[in-house]
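Backbone geometry:
***
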Amino acid sequence: MSQSEVHIMREVHITIDRKNLTSPNPTTGHALYVLGEIPQGYVLFREAHGHGDDEPIPDTSVLIELHDGEKFYSAQSSLNPGS
């Protein structure tokens, strides 16, 4: 394994649904769902800086790089206005 393929594990402070949490970095989308106690039927999003769209985080085992102070929030995966 080359040095560029080695992932250095460290902890970062993040916020999920206004809860201050500590997460290993890198982590997986699934680990963030568990850490944030995201209910089934909800999707986790990473808040974008500036005018970009917030990034949906899939509930998978794919590695995700985190940055200290990042904010995440959950929302229902299907919204039914008027129901």
